[in-house]
Design a protein that fits this description.
The chain has 573 residues and is α+β, with helices and mostly antiparallel strands. It has helices at 3-6, 16-30, 64-70, 77-86, 135-148, 191-194, 208-228, 246-252, 258-267, 305-313, 318-329, 337-341, 349-355, 388-408, 416-425, 431-434, 477-482, 495-504, 510-528, 534-544, 556-572; strands spanning 40-44, 47-52, 57-61, 92-95, 110-111, 153-157, 184-188, 199-204, 234-235, 238-239, 279-280, 359-360, 362-365, 376-379, 436-440, 472-476. The longest helix is centred in the middle third of the chain and has 21 residues, at 208-228. The model is unreliable at 1-9 and 453-468 (pLDDT under 50). Keywords: ATP-binding, Glutathione biosynthesis, Ligase, Nucleotide-binding.
Amino acid sequence: MGWKSAFVARGNSESRSPGTQQILNLWEWGKDITNPEALWGDEIEYLIVDLDPSWSRATVLLCQESILQQWDKQTNEKSRRALIKSLLGPSQYPLTIASFPRLGVKGQYSTPHYAPSQSNIHYRMLPPQLLSPALRHVYMAQKILGRRQRPIGVHVPLFQDRDTPRSFLDDPFSSKKPEKEDNCVYLEGQGFGCGCCALQTTFQTETERDARWLHDQLVILGPTMMALTAATPIFKGFLVNTDSRWNCLVASLDDRTQTEVSDFITASKTCCSVPLTRWSSNRVYLSHERPPDIANACRQVRVDESARQQLLEGGMDESIALYFSHIIWYDPLCLSQDDIDSMSPETTHILQKFQHGVWHHVHLKMPDASIGAGWRVEFRPMEVQPKDSENAAFSVFMFLLSRAILTYRLNFYIPIELVTESMQRAQSLDAVTKERFWFRRRGWAPDGLDSIQCHPQNGCAHTLDESTDGAYTLMTMDEIINGERSTSPARFPGLVAIVRSYLLDRELLPNEEAKLIGYLNLISCRASGSLPTPARWMRNFVAEHEDYQHDSVVTEKICYDMLKEVAKMNEAD
């Protein structure tokens, strides 16, 4: 059904009340479920790239639907890549890169080649053929564009190199604002954000209580892991001054009207300056066991008040009722007339429609009887890594850290507004070595655990110091991951040391231990800066290429050679 008939305004109750009842029914059924099995899984997104040696040209291969029709297996990283490669031609490769570097340039960047639309203002830069033909994606795009009533566009600051024009102006479509902004790359269309690739992990917990605690700790870890995995330094053939895809995704799925944007700009003077949109960092904590000085939500959070009251009256506490009533506040993006006609509180399909239209960096999943799953938490901020071994390292690290969090009941709580601030810091150029992030350095562990030692090779062998200064502060990535180094007692031993302590209590075979230690060393080296992020590796490759003119331009030949090198990496990995 059309967006105008389905969603006249936010707050239309035609689907909200049944959706809220479905939430209550599922929560009531699942709130006491226990599942002691520590299951977890990862989701790795790929780009299919054609490397044409005759033209030294790399293009995005638009063949995803045919590949998916032939592939229904779940295997490990290497097997997945090999299986996809077997379905491709000799010059075609499945690459785990966060974005295609020259998407949207003038000329050919896809195979087959399609020109942007001359008549549809929503496809002036990226042709509609780049969008997946799956109906869910088509409807989602229509609803977002229909509601906002203007093209999707984002200005990404240009990286200023030695010979980059100091008054750079990207080639816009008219002389009107907001299409012109000095020293920025202008990206118009959902494909720039939605075409980015991520590494996502999901962890099953034993109880609802554990899921809510883990959810909150992972919310705080989001900026840390996004900076560690930063892999998006190039957009539309230009080096940009950011390293992450995140804000581009925020813009790609922002369905706010111009009036709502203006209202936020006014409100942001007294609240968080980062908008809360369909795709954004979390602004709600779920556990009622959080410290008393930590508020459960940012003041910017909007809720459907009738849904909130319905959830509270149904037995939910304030935090989890706030979480779900915030999701219900948004319009479902893919609601059909059949969905409306077949609504029933006994099913969950309306709830799924709401949840599939809101993407926060951590997502709570209630038990699902159809697949035998218990309470789960999905972690979404990490960028996909070029090498299988790197994706495996970050996936395993997050699983081990999640187990340590639940085993030791680790408390990383900081005010939710500081998480939002750190998410912005995490996207800056070389954030992993140049930025500092808000993190808890004191009161993070129960009595007896705070004597964890930093690993000797990292130069830190001090116990936690119970001084009277603030419990949380700005810390470097090296301090968060590898521990604080100081002549005075260190306050935080580092996440790697915590995971090592957790592993000491597990019975591991020598080969298992060796592999896990290798993964932890990779994380440690990435945090210290001795192992570059994919974003830094790409910047170095471009800077050292013989065709680079130090003008921030990533030419067709540079892009081809870089992606060819990425393909070689995985063959040797």
